[in-house]
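Usage

Read records sequentially. Each one opens with the input sequence:
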Amino acid sequence: MKEIELSKKLILHGKLPLSLSKVEFERIFHFINDNIEGLDELKLNRFNDINIPLMQDIIWILDYAEGQFQLKKKKTLHRKSLDVMIHGKGEGSLKRHHLNYSSLKDSPDMVLLYFIESDDNDIIIEYDDNRKKGLYWTLPIGSNKYVLFNSSLEYYILPNKLEKQRIVLRVTYDERLPLT
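and closes with the structure output:
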């Protein structure tokens, strides 16, 4: 008997090993704050994502998570977008996915959430498994943790419990086969 796998949902999560990293989080905080000045005047989408440019410390974080994906899946990731989500006390995210139904070919394959600064809380990722509908997976979040998952999965982050802002990098990707 032969088996054909039609689709597979994936959640990878981990933590950046700070002992091996030169990432300076203070520099990232200042960079993000400089890029969100005049936030009231920015045109935000309904999820309040704030588009930011790349900087070296953010690139190092993304390189690590992308490398972990490549080791696990033997595929590479091509960045499509980079945003930041900022949640004050009592704020969480709306339930969402990253498919654009009006243009599926322009939708990303994967989404990375990297928690630069965060309370100890949870992200809820919902999925279906054939006839089993409305299933969910709860993952703990906190500073320096990341979660990488399929863009079709709906998710939400529970409200921030701390006075400090929760800062989350959100990156979307296309999957690509590695160069041979």
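Summary fields computed downstream for this record:
- The longest strand covers residues 76-87.
- The helical segments are 25-35, 56-73.
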